[in-house]
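Check this:
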Amino acid sequence: MPAQLNIAELVEKLPPTDREIEAQKAAEKVAQDPAKPPAKPAKEPGASKFTGPEPEVARQLCEQVLAGGRDSLTQLIALVRDPASPEFKNYKPEYLLRCLTLHVGGTGKEAARKTFREVLTAELRNEKHSPAVKGYLLRELQWIGDADTVKALGSLLADEALCEAAASALAAIGAGAGDAFRKALPGAKGRCRLVIVQNLGVLREVKAAEALRNALNDEDRDVRVAAAWGLARTGDPKSVDLLLKAADVPPGLERIKATQACLLLAENLAATGKRKDAAKIYTHLQETRTDPKETYVREAAAQALHALAGELF
């Protein structure tokens, strides 16, 4: 990158938003006739729209930033602002970062992708960035992250402000993410604990089955429900009795959700050849769901048992 290139100036080469165009036109009219008051909008404006550059222009901008190496990437990230901050100007820096993510994700861009990924990860440790800015960086990493990224993101699962964005990035990266979630779970509290349990279910993390079984006794109802769903997703036969117990709570949302988890577990068990375990769940639900409001559960269990009968006996 030429020494005289300024990243802020480069960002401004992106097209303006519709709001900026309208404001510029209004300013030009006022300049032409200062005595005439500016026209009021006919209605409240909607969200500002942004028209991206032509693909070739975007490619050239990305190549210019990448040519400057880590320093240019760091400069670009430094321009990103929380939309709620008084320093926020527009979304152009974020848009150029997204362009870079797409650009380095292409074939033959492995070296550039590695550099960009490392800079994004390093900037997550920069305390000058607000949680909103770090959340944006995490959303980019979910597209280009790797095993090393997973290690770096694991510590953010305990951060109340960033755990959801970090979890989304980890789940998208996939490889090794289960270990990060499992290691973070024992010390996690509040919203972070719920997010971790939910994502262990998303990943069908079989190694977390014991931890999820323990979470069935969590003081937080939402965590208990998420743990039940996670165990159902893993198809863990050791969880049959515990999940049935979790579903036999008094009527309410937790009973409904845990019962759904039992049905899902039974379905997954049957699909993997553990038909007797599946039949145990269906039989229990058929015998215990006697309330008229739970007729649908009893009927679903009966139909499933009928389907299994020929294979069991």
